[in-house]
Each structure stands twice: as C-alpha cells, then as structure tokens.
Design brief:
The chain is mainly alpha-helical. The chain contains seven helices and no strands.
Length: 226
C-alpha cells in the first residue's frame, strides 16, 4: 500500500476543509435573514438556529470537521516550510490560527446547546437560548480577533516567501488586517438592540469566508503540486 506525502495530505485537507467550512456558512445566510432594528439580536439568531431543522444539526458537524482539517493543513504547511527556512512570523501565525480555530469549534458546539435546550424546556420558556447566542457572539468576536490576526501573519509571511498565489496572499493579508480592526470596532460599539451595530461585523465575516476559501485552496493546490 502506497503512503501519501505530508504535502499532499496537508494540501487536500486545506481544500476540503475550506469547502466544508464555507458551505454551512453561506447556506445559513441563504436561508436566513437579518434582524429588525430595535429587536434583541440574540433572540433573533436563537430563533434562526432553532427553526433550522436537521440542517442546523448538520452544520456544526461539517464546520468542526472543516476546521479540524484546516488546522492540520496549516500545521503541516508550517512544519514543512520551517524545515526549508525558519520563519518566526509564520510560526506565530500558525499558533494564532490554531488557537482561534479552537474557539470557533466551541462556538459551533453551542448550537447544540441552544437546540437541545429548546427541545427540553419549550420554545416560549427557553430564555437561555438567547443567552447561548450571546456566548457564541462573544467567543466569535474574541477568538475571531485571534484567528484573523494569525491569518494576517500567515498570509504576510507567505507573500514574502512567494509561496502560493502571491496576489491571493497579499489580498488576504490586507483584508485580515482590516477585519482585525473590524473585530475591535464591534467589541466597543455593539448594541444588543441594534442590528446595524453588528452588520459591519457580519459583512466582514461573509467577505472573509470568500477570502479564506481562496486563501486555503490556493495553499492547498500549491502543497499538492510539491
């Protein structure tokens, strides 16, 4: 039986992981909507989760698996490139991405907390569902700040090396830096009763999914060629 190289399995994980992470995100956007101004946004998103049916049960599985594959791909890429030439910025980015990814995994598990709690207590009485979403947003904003800081370091280091598609690396680096600022802005300006206060963050997340898809697939394809 032939073995598969680290380059190939790492690259494959980056490509597959990116797809698994992107599909649930955009399906949620497609089937969902946006909260009305003056409505408690945590309650709105809790209702969106509980009304999603079996798809809401599937999304966390796909996303957590996708994140795990991406973590392996990034870790493998860093290990291989460090053997060629030591790069502190690349290692820092890898660690930050892994730490941020752990937070995202926790966030997806909270969907089950909301869904199963809703089933046990009942829709009208289950006030903790909205609190579950509050926890999710808090973790996403904080760990997202860490994760995107890591992506900025990674893409910058890879752009300097000329690894992968240089244009994609540069675009990712600039976007990641702006999105880090977006996280900080959201932390200090979020109003739970104002949908407009969280929209810049969600627009950034939506664009970020596309940027990350291109970033990870570009890296994955490059790894599989080697």
């Amino acid at each position: 039986m032939k073995t598969i190289s680290l380059n190939k399995i790492g690259g494959l994980c980056l490509c597959v992981g990116a797809a698994l992470l992107t599909i649930p995100f955009f399906l949620q956007i497609t089937f969902g909507g946006t909260p009305e101004e003056g409505f408690l946004i945590w309650r709105y998103f809790a209702n969106e989760i509980t009304s999603g049916g079996n798809l809401t049960l599937l999304y966390p599985i796909m996303s957590v698996l996708g994140i795990a594959l991406l973590v392996f791909g990034v870790y493998t890429l860093n290990s291989l490139l460090q053997k060629e030439k030591e790069d502190g910025l690349l290692s820092l980015g890898t660690v930050l991405v892994i730490l941020g990814s752990i937070g995202y995994m926790v966030v997806w598990s909270l969907d089950y907390h909301i869904l199963w709690g809703q089933s046990v207590v009942g829709q009208e009485e289950w006030t903790d569902a909205a609190l579950g979403v509050t926890m999710e947003i808090g973790i996403v904003v904080l760990f997202g700040f860490i994760n995107w800081s890591g992506i900025q370091c990674l893409s910058s280091a890879l752009a300097v090396r000329g690894y992968g598609n240089t244009t994609v690396m540069k675009i990712t680096s600039v976007f990641a830096g702006l999105h880090v600022v977006n996280h900080i802005y959201t932390i200090f300006n979020l109003d739970p009763m104002s949908a407009s206060s969280i929209m810049p963050f969600f627009i950034g997340m939506s664009l970020g999914q596309l940027v990350l898809l291109a970033f990870n697939v570009s890296l994955g394809m490059q790894m599989m060629k080697e």
